[in-house]
Amino acid sequence: MNPAGRIIESRLQHLESHLEQENPVLLKAVRSFRTLDRVAYRMGLLERHRSFAQQIAWWPLISMLGTFSSGKSTFINHYLDHKLQRTGNQAVDDKFTVICYSKEREAHSLPGVALDSDPRFPFYRISNEIEKVAKGEGERIDSYLALKTCPSEHLRGKILIDSPGFDADAQRTATLRITDHIMDLADLVLVLFDARHPEPGAMQDTLQHLVTDTINRADAGKFLYILNQIDTTAREDNPEEVVAAWQRALGERGLTAGRFYAIYNPDAAVPIDDEALRRRFESKRDGDLAEIHGRMRQVEIERAYRIVGALEKTARDIEERMVPAIRRTLEHWRRRVLIGDALLFGALLVVLISASVKLGWWQGLRFAPPWLDALLASPLALYASAGVAAVLTIGLHYLVRMGAARSLKGLVARRGRSIDARGSLQLAFARNTRPWRSIFASAPIGWGRRSRKRLATVLEEADAYVQTLNDKFTNPSGEDLRRVARDPDAGTLSRETPVRPGGPVGAEEPPPAS
Ligand SMILES: Nc1nc2c(ncn2[C@@H]2O[C@H](COP(=O)(O)OP(=O)(O)OP(=O)(O)O)[C@@H](O)[C@H]2O)c(=O)[nH]1
Ligand SMILES: [Mg+2]
User: Fold this and answer.
1) 3-state DSSP percent of the chain in helix, strand and coil, to 5
2) pTM
3) Alpha carbons 352 and 271: distance in angstroms, whole number
4) 264 lines ligand 1 (CB under 6 A)
5) Which of 67, 70, 87, 144, when mutated, tests ligand 1's pocket best, judged by the most ligand atoms within 8 Å of its CB?
6) What pLDDT does 146 receive?
7) Beta bridge partners of 17
8) Most exposed among 5, 90, 154, 407, judged by the fewest C-beta atoms under 10 Å?
9) What pLDDT was estimated at residue 201?
10) Ligand 1 neighbour 170 (Cβ under 6 A)
């Protein structure tokens, strides 16, 4: 095995030993990913020092998004029971902070580059992505990201992301790109709004990005929309109206009840003098906060379904998207080679014939150059010149093949991006157009009985994992899953978590630029 292959092997072994204790079903999923790797190596979809398992976020990830000063950092500090993040009324955070567990009692801060170069974290190679959308910004990764560790038990086995205040108008492209990346990757996204701004209508673009665009996603269930700091409305004549106005504004953007919460932070709240009002506020807050914390606990479960979902999707994508795309691209290439050959050799023929006519090598329709008799008389000369002609012809044909493959580069790259599947169409195409492959070979390299069988096995395994997860996380009798799902404290599926064998939760996260 080459050194790069050894590195990925040791990373996968690390992952496996970690999952062995944490979640045995996911340990099996790693093995299934390895089977997919083997198929992809044979087909040239994946370089041998990479693994599909590397493109998955294996940790359960919760991210906080929301407007400036809506209380994201205060919420995190309260959840962790640690004063980890700075808070304040001016815009405080200008970076995304990834917060993860560490036994050490001291909280530590590390620069963003630590995240960019470590595949265990959700921002692995994000600088490449940023560079694509904002030239020059990829190098400044430290100004966008930070990593902090914290010994809070509530954090064990999870990763939290705190983000800078979101404002669609003022946001830089790089920040928007990171925000979108987080939305794709996270298992749970808490979107915070600030009840001190009673005018939700004033921030159209922000609502568009945070609500309208998220509500119709395939994985919309992982977004919770939270109106924070409702304690500040207690001073209004009609506090309920503030909450209702927000609910209406979000409702107009398609948000249904059930995912809208109204809370405030007990540590940061202003005192509410009216006893009855205070109790009403507290009971609303405690109920909603309990549900939100419940969802945060369940993220572990949603992560498991998400990973099995990614396994299944990767397997299906190879067969349903990659293979047809390789085939189509090869057909394209074949057509270009044949047309190129026809044009080149046609032109050559015309040149040779007209030259020979000019040289007077024809007697009527008979080809009779002065050197023909001498050539026919010596078999050696005859074979040598036939050999030279053949080598020239083959050489020209290979030039045409290479030219045709090169001319398709842009198209292959575009097609690769548009099919949105793991694995590289470009690499597979390069492999299928190598010199010793016939242009008429119909099946892509590596796509034979064995690969098909391996994919089928992985799909069966994915089904089995979903069932194991269902058995583990839902009512063992299998009845009334929805009832269990509605109770967040049962430590089970959330109400948005569909339970259907073979169809796990969650959309795909794009591989962080591999
Ligand atoms: N009254 C009240 N104040 C709060 C509440 N939550 C947070 N605050 C205050 O609101 C201010 C902003 O809180 P942060 O936690 O810094 O907000 P943030 O969303 O992290 O802000 P940025 O990082 O700057 O976007 C701080 O002064 C907090 O003390 C709440 O529930 N009620
Ligand atoms: Mg903050």
Assistant:
1) 60, 10, 35
2) 0.69
3) 98
4) yes
5) 87
6) 86
7) none
8) 90
9) 66
10) no
